[in-house]
């Protein structure tokens, strides 16, 4: 028996599901970028010297292909180009263009944070007109209320000591969501708009990993970006100001921005908590350690929303 060649050894290290989207092309190398529970992402180098990003997702992550086919592509959202896809039994494998190796998380600068805030304003503004006719992936007021209710039920089951911790959110959430619906048109929501998902290119920052994208009005993406920046002493106030400045330049000044940010924070936190309690604890080893922090964030968001509600 002959010893394996270098090419064979390399192939053995690559994910076995790569062949589902490679169309017979041979890979010469790869780096695993992320791996947790139901999601795994690689940068693959091909024989012609090109690189692509390949991702396998299961569970809720398996919706990523539908997000691309029914939301991002038809409404021309600025997301990485989808090159190939495979839909399996409860999972998908997706191949994307590779936008580069410099993420905002690994190369944080004040300029990068502020440019990303402006990017968010541009994405929301550009998508507003396009997504109005779509009902798919719409995160409605009723669905947000249901998310809170599901999170509360799951919290009682998983952490009985925290039963009732989300009760204070309910009377604050509903009227503010109705007010938001009456003043802000639906647009694109990335769902995980953090520095790890921002690639810095020569043309500016670019958002990647749109697997949790939805249609809605809330500013959870800005909240998520500000929260992320705050973890590393980033320029949080300047990020908010840059977003507001860009909105004004686009002819759509941000209205009651602190109130919108507080409401977006509540929605983002409830959505994250619901996922952690219903799915995350079963697929991510450390997910149970996130629960207390998210419950505390929900309480803080409730207080912030009360304080920032106009007329309070």
UniProtKB/TrEMBL annotation:
It comes from the Bacteria. Residues 70-244 form the Aminoglycoside phosphotransferase domain. This is Aminoglycoside phosphotransferase domain-containing protein.
């Amino acid at each position: 028996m002959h010893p394996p060649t270098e090419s064979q050894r390399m192939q053995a290290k690559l994910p076995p599901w790569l062949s589902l989207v490679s169309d017979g092309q041979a890979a010469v190398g790869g780096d695993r970028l992320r791996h947790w529970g139901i999601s795994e992402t690689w940068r693959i180098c091909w024989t012609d010297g090109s690189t692509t990003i390949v991702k396998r997702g299961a569970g809720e992550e398996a919706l990523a292909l539908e997000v691309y086919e029914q939301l991002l592509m038809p409404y021309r959202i600025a997301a990485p180009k989808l090159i190939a896809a495979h839909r399996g039994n409860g999972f998908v494998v997706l191949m994307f263009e590779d936008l580069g190796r410099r993420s905002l998380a690994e190369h944080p600068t004040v300029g990068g944070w502020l440019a990303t805030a402006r990017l968010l304003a541009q994405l929301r503004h550009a998508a507003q007109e396009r997504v109005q006719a779509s009902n798919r992936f719409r995160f409605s007021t009723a669905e947000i209320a249901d998310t809170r209710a599901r999170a509360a039920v799951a919290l009682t089951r998983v952490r009985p000591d925290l039963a009732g911790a989300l009760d204070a959110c309910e009377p604050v959430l509903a009227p503010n969501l109705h007010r938001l619906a009456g003043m802000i048109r639906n647009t694109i929501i990335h769902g995980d708009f953090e520095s790890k998902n921002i690639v810095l290119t020569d043309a500016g920052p670019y958002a990647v990993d749109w697997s949790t994208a939805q249609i809605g009005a809330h500013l959870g993406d800005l909240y998520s970006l500000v929260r992320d920046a705050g973890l590393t002493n980033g320029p949080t106030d300047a990020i908010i100001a840059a977003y507001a400045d860009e909105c004004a330049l686009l002819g759509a000044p941000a209205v009651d921005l602190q109130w919108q940010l507080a409401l977006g924070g509540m929605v983002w936190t409830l959505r994250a908590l619901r996922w952690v309690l219903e799915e995350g604890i079963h697929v991510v080893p450390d997910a149970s350690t996130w629960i207390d922090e998210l419950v505390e964030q929900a309480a803080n968001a409730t207080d912030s929303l009360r304080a920032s509600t106009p007329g309070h």
